[in-house]
Amino acid sequence: MDSEKKSPIEKLTHPLQSFISQEKSGGIVLGISVILAMVLANSGLSEHYFNFFKHEIGFLFDGKPFLNYSIHHWINDGLMSIFFFVVGLELKREIVGGELSSPRKALLPIAAAIGGMVVPASIYLLLNSSGEVHHGWGIPMATDIAFALGVLFLLGKKVPLSLKIFLTALAIVDDLGAVLVIAFFYTSDISMMSLAIGLSFVLVMYAGNKLGVRSILFYAIFGILGVWTAFLLSGVHATIAAVLAAFTIPADVKIKENKYIQQIQIYLARFKAADPNDKIPTVTDEQLHILEDMKKDTNAAIPPLQRLEHAMHPMVTFLIIPIFALANAGISLDIDVDELFSTNIALGVGLGLLVGKVVGVVGFTLLLVKLKVAPFPEGMNVKNLFGLGLLASIGFTMSLFVTSLAFTHEEYMVQAKVGIFVASIIGGVLGYMLLKKTLK
User: Which of 245, 243, 244, 239 is nearest to 401 (CA)?
Assistant: First the structure.
C-alpha cells in the first residue's frame, strides 16, 4: 500500500499530467494562446508586444554576426522546425504501419486532403489572380490538426473511431501537402552549395539508419548542426530540413515482440530470485544490473521514431505551438474596413477555408465513394462527413505559418490573418454543432 501513496510533488503534478494526456488539451492551450495574443495586441502593451518579436538574436564569429535573426524569425524557422520534425515522424509512422500503409485504407483520406487543398487554392486564385496578393494561394490549403482534433475530441466518446482516424489521416496528408508547397513555392534565392551540404548530411543520417545506428544523439547532431543549419543558410525553408531529417529516423525494432516477452520473463525471474534489500530503500547491485538490462532491451523493442515522437509531442503541443501562436496570432482590431478589403486577400482566405475546404473534402470523398473506388469507413455518413469538412477549415497554425512566408507587406498579412480567424472560428463552431447533432 505504501508504494501506491503519491509523494507531495506527484499530488501537485498529477492534475497537470492528467490534462496533458487528454486529446482535446492541445486545442484548448492553442485557443488560450490565440486569445492572449489578441489581448496583448489590443491593449496598452501592444507596442511592447509587437516590438519584442523584432529584437534580434544571433552569434558573433570572428567579430562578424552569424545566424543573426529576429525573435520572430527564430520562432518561425527554429521552433517551428521542431514542429515539422514531429510532423515528419508522424508521416513516416503512418506510411510505415499506420493509416497510410494500406493503399485502400489510405485512398479516401488522401483524396479528401487533395480536394481540401486544390479547391481552396483555386477559390483564392480566382479572387487574387495577379500581383503580390497572388502569393497567398497556399494559405487556405492548410488544416490545423491540433485545433481540428481538439474540437472533435470535445464531443467525447460518442465520436466513432473511424471519424477520428479519417480526420487524423486527412490532416497528416494535408501537412505533407503544406510541406511540399513550402518547399517548391515559398523559398527565397537558393545557395546550391549550402543545399548540397544539407543533403549530404541527410545522406549520412540515412546511411546511419541502414547501418543500424539507433542513437538519438547521432541523429540530433547531424540533424540540427548539419541538415537544419545548412538548409537555414541555403534559402530553402528550414522546416523542410526537419521533415527530411525525420524520414531518416529508424522505424524498426531491434528486438521483436515475442523475443522481448521471453527476455522480460527471464529478467523478472532473475529479479525475483535475487536477494531482496528490505533494510534500505535502494536496490542491490545484482538487481540494478537486471533492471539496466531490462531497460536496454525495452529501448531496443521501441523504434527510435516512436520514442522520439512520444517524447517530443507534449513539448510541441504545449510549448512550441502556443509560442508560435503568441508570436503570430496577435493583430490589432483597430482596422479600417476599407483598408481590410482593399484587396481580396481576406475574402480569398476566408472563402477558401470555409467553402473550399468543405467542398473539396466532401466532394472528392463522395466522388470516390460513388465511383466505388473506396467505401465509407464504418460509422461515417454524408452528414458527419460535412462536419469533418467544416473542422478541416480550421487553419490556424499552418495557415498563419504560410502567411508569414507568403507576404512581407504588413497590411496583407493582417488581411490574411482576419480571413483565417473568421473562417476557422465559424468552421469550428459549425462543425462541432453539426457533428453533435448527427452523432446523437
Answer: 239
Show the beta-strand stretches assigned E in 16-160. 56-61, 64-70
Alpha helices in 371-409 (DSSP H): 382-391, 396-406
**CA triple 381-375-370, angle to 5 deg:** 85
Q: How many CB atoms lie within 10 A of CB 114?
A: 17
The number of residues making up the chain comes to 440
Q: Are 343 and 415 in contact (CB under 8 A)?
A: yes
pLDDT per residue as tens digits for the range 343-372: 999 999 999 999 999 999 999 999 999 998
Backbone angles phi, psi at 325, to 5 degrees: -65, -40
- For the chain, which residues score pLDDT lower than 70? 1-24, 188, 277-280, 440
- The dihedrals phi and psi of 60, each to the nearest 5 degrees, come to -110, 125
Q: For 352, which DSSP code?
A: I
pTM of the prediction?
A: 0.78
Question: What secondary structure letter does DSSP report for 23?
Answer: T
Q: Which residue do the cell numbers 529584437 mark?
A: 55
Give the Cα separation of 168 and 259 in Å (integer): 32
